[in-house]
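Protein record
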Amino acid sequence: MSASEPAAPDEHPEVVTPATAAVAKREVRRTDAGSRVTGVIVVGMSVAVWWPSFTLGAWGDFFFDQMLTIWAAASGAFIAVLIQPRGQPRVGRAIALLIPSLWLGLWFLTADADPDDWVVGVVSLLGIVIGILAVPATIWVLARMIWPEFAEDISWPRRFAVIGAVLLIAVASFLLGVNQSKFLTCGDFTISGNSEPHGCTPDPVDTP
């Protein structure tokens, strides 16, 4: 083709019809909705995981009300999974949500056991895992139930980003609990309704 010859028209020009434009707009809106839901899930998981992680760092243990709250949330989500319409994936979610109840039963069975028994150690380790991960996992299950498209829209890199963000909050909260004496005093814990953790910094005494 010489420079003077006109360019050949495209044999298959892309025609944008109102229908295709509407489909493209729905896809963009769906992607935006998935991003917004992902942000809400990350915030919810972070709020749920920071306090148990902090108490584990500051007191070396979880409070009983935290563990029972986790059990209640997981049990409620378990019932919600059971009443889902048939055809929905339920077995894996139901088993995962039963783990806190399993831990609670083992806790009762080993209450009078020797603290040095390996079974007690396994139950304690399971309690730590549940205390940190059970509520975020419950939120994830509920999100997939409420927004079925959530699992379809979120890519695996974004899923890893969600997990990484929550783990980062958990680790940072644990480290803040371990180092609570550097920025909190014993009075800060007392006034908030908590017991004083070991090694907390005493309040300064005003001298006349």
Q: What stands out?
A: The helical segments are 18-59, 64-82, 91-109, 118-146, 148-153, 156-178, 186-191. The chain has a mean pLDDT of 82. Residues 48-188 form one domain.
